[in-house]
Amino acid sequence: MNFGGANPLKQVLTTAKSALENDDGKEFADFISLNHPFSQRQWNLSHISLDPPFDQIVFEHFQCSNAVLNRDFIAAFNHQCNVIQIFARMFKTQKEDNWGLPMMNVLIKDMYSLALKADLVAVANGEMAGSKIDACADMLMTVFRVCASDSRTSIEYTKRWGLMPIINLLFKCYFKTNKLHLCKPLIIAIETNAANKDIKDLFSIADRVTYNYFVGMKHMFENEFKGADKCLSFAFENCLKNSMSNKRKILICLIPVKITLGFMPKVSILKKYNLCEFEDVVKAVKRGDIRLLNEAIAKNAAFFIRAGIYLILEKLKVITLRNLFKKIYLITGSFQIDVAKFQIALNWLGLEDVDSDETECILANMINDGYIKGYISEQHKKIVVSKVKAFPELNTFL
After folding, report:
1. How far apart are CA 238 and CA 258, in angstroms?
2. d(Cα 302, Cα 291) in Å, to the nearest integer?
3. In sequence order, what are the residues at sequence separation of 6 or more whose Cβ sits closer than 8 angstroms to the Cβ of residue 98?
4. In the predicted model, is pLDDT for residue 2 greater than 50?
5. pTM of the entire predicted model
6. Dihedral through CA 339, CA 341, CA 342, CA 343, nearest 10?
């Protein structure tokens, strides 16, 4: 649109009014986006010729965009929250209609973006980190309740189509503020609520990829590795092929999950997505080389910590030891193995301080956790393993 006329404000407001009269939520959504060219200019608003509450929405929107241009992100965020509140009240009154969903999607994405910037300013001013992100989550819940309560409207016109985009932004808020426990009710709303199960697989593939990514990460942090594998694999396989950065981001979580379940990624995959940090990790777990694993984790600790998977990789030490002990079992060819043989291997791989008692303790824990089927004979200082699948497949019990 050309804004070079004698009265560009009147021109664009006329277009906005036409969009509202035609229930064209998409066109009006473009108009109230902070990315719209009209929002890149300062405006002195004295009168907005739109019916309420859209006059208020537009007024607050331009107050917000003016604040963004002045780089006053806290004020901009507050104005955007006002827009959301006004919109939520209006949206709730629209019975059996959802033409406002495109508006909602634009408004909540802009609000989240402003919350991140406002939070940085707030922290610089001495406020607690995450305060603006928490406020953003509160506003998102306001709109979430409006959409979730519209359970009796037909699928075509229900506001429930807005649930997954809202939930995905709530996930982002809760992961940033480390409040993962608040994700559970959101997952229940999608996965088990009878009113929403019918549309769960009908959301856009982009929304479903994002949703599965966050749900997969939550499963991973809670040691629910099969659930994590299912969700993260879906996200990776359905992410756009040319979106290399997003696929790489998913793989950073998926790789340790796969290794935990006993599936080793190919070196070609690691090279393709520039994840060489995992090469020695994979090699160490395969070999049962605890020394190499410790070195690989220490060498790339900064990367693993930034990615939020450091503690998950620490848990790979048990699997590495399991693979080491399995090799000893295969080499000896016996179901009764001296504990001393395991101790010698551990000492040789750099764990010099591990004595016989500690070796027994390691073996006992692995038996208790299901990594080995057998028992320890204290009298003979031997481990007696099962004749059937002494070392069960990892994906059968993790």
Report:
1. 17
2. 19
3. 150, 153, 157, 158, 159, 161, 162
4. no
5. 0.90
6. 90
